[in-house]
Amino acid sequence: MFFHASPIGGIQQLEPRVSNHNIPLIYFSKKRENTLVYLSNAIEKYCKDTGFDYQGTWQKWGSYGFDEDGIQRLEEYYPNALEETYKGVSGYIYQADSIIDSGFEVQIPDAATSSEPVAVSGVEYENASNHPEYRYFLDNKMSEYLQ
Question: Which residue range(s) make up the domain with 141?
């Protein structure tokens, strides 16, 4: 199973797009939890939130890295980086049963890429209001970060 995160709903087929590597690819992770950081791009969000008008392709950047065991970790690369990048962000986790691997090595643990369109086999979008126990946890432990 392969996972891909997007702020856009309703996708039936994932299409390659040009990103930081300057070639059309779709990026996946074999670990669902690793895709969540890709729901927000710090550069794009900051520019849009502050009114910077830009029509080009956004460079990708996020506040995360991986430890020596390949475990993803969130990092505060600058003060309030996590809050500024992810506050108010929601999105979808798309699933694909299989992909045609592009052979492009991204040097990200558990990552894979495809240069071919990929059919979506499942999607998740969870709203905390549908889970009262989760909402209770968020309201009591993270209320200062919630809108």
Answer: 2-145
